[in-house]
Amino acid sequence: MIKLGIIGTSWITAMFLDAAVQTKAYELTTVYSRSQEKGQKFLSSLAFNTENVDVVTTLSDLYQNVDAVYIASPNALHFEQAKVAIQSGVHAIVEKPLFSNPAEFKQIENLLATHPDVLLFEAARHVHQPNFKLIQSIVKKMPKLQGATLVYQKYSSRYDAYLAGEEPNVLTKKYSAGALYDLGVYPIYAALAIYGAPNAVQYLPTLLRNGVDGNGVANLFYSGFNVTVIFGKTSNSYLSSEFYGLKDTISVSNIAELESVIYHDSAGQVNSVGAKPENNPMVREAQDFANIINDPIENHAEYNQWLQLAKQVNQTLFDLRQSAEIEFPADIKE
Question: Which domain of life is it from (predicted)?
Answer without folding.
Answer: Bacteria
